[in-house]
Amino acid sequence: VYSLTASSVAGEGQSHAAVLFVVDSTERDQAERQRQEFTANVSHELKTPLTSIMGYAEIMENGIVKPEDVAPFAGKIRAEAVRLLTLIEDIIRLSQLDEGGAPAPFEPVELLALCGTVRDRLQHKAAAHKVTLAVTGKPVTAQAQRRTLEQMVFNLADNAVAYNRAGGSVTIEAGAEGGAPFIRVSDTGIGIAPADQARVFERFYRVDKSHSKMTGGTGLGLSIVKHGAALHHAKIELQSALGVGTTITLRFPKA
Ligand code: ADP
């Protein structure tokens, strides 16, 4: 899409000179459209848990809840509040990454240890899903924003557990190939169809909305990975086959 702007320039002693500006507005329009879409999606995603919270609170206020139902109702309110909080945290993180990253320093980060931290954080969830979670590889150091990188690997491994099957496995690997550090998260889960592979990194894009709601995801996990990778000048490689599993590799620049 091109926008044309014609402008008249009157020069001295000349009658008229016409200048034609040709501006490629495709990118600008697309960015604007994405922003509008994002705002609409955010509003919708924030309203859903809030509407449930208000519903439960109203029922409790009206006194029609049996005493034994009070605790489960409070539990539902808390779960929706947690969902809301996770969503708000993800939105803040994305907007920080949009503005060039959180105001955190880049420092040498040992990747195998970072993978171990992520495994420890996810061990409980993996056990609940009956998924084995392992870390493998060699110690290797990359320049990174520690918290951002940990969040990225967490998001990948969290998905690898969530979109898996009972008895399945997840491997988080750190190492270097050709002097370039990498982190790789592989799973034996449901896989991502070729048509969805490029789209899963878009904000709020989910292959299966109902399944994703069940897994408690915000739909922002992989966009955070994408923006975080750009911040680290890292490449993302995705390999996936339906019903077989998914492998996502983050490749960092050579030290
Ligand atoms: P969500 O919070 O829904 O998990 P993400 O941005 O992390 O959002 O992922 C987007 C979508 O990509 C998910 O809803 C899911 O459909 C798909 N997806 C992500 N990771 C995997 C994976 N390891 N295996 C299968 N599907 C995945």
From TrEMBL:
<protein>
    <recommendedName>
        <fullName>histidine kinase</fullName>
    </recommendedName>
</protein>
<feature type="domain" description="Histidine kinase">
    <location>
        <begin position="41"/>
        <end position="255"/>
    </location>
</feature>
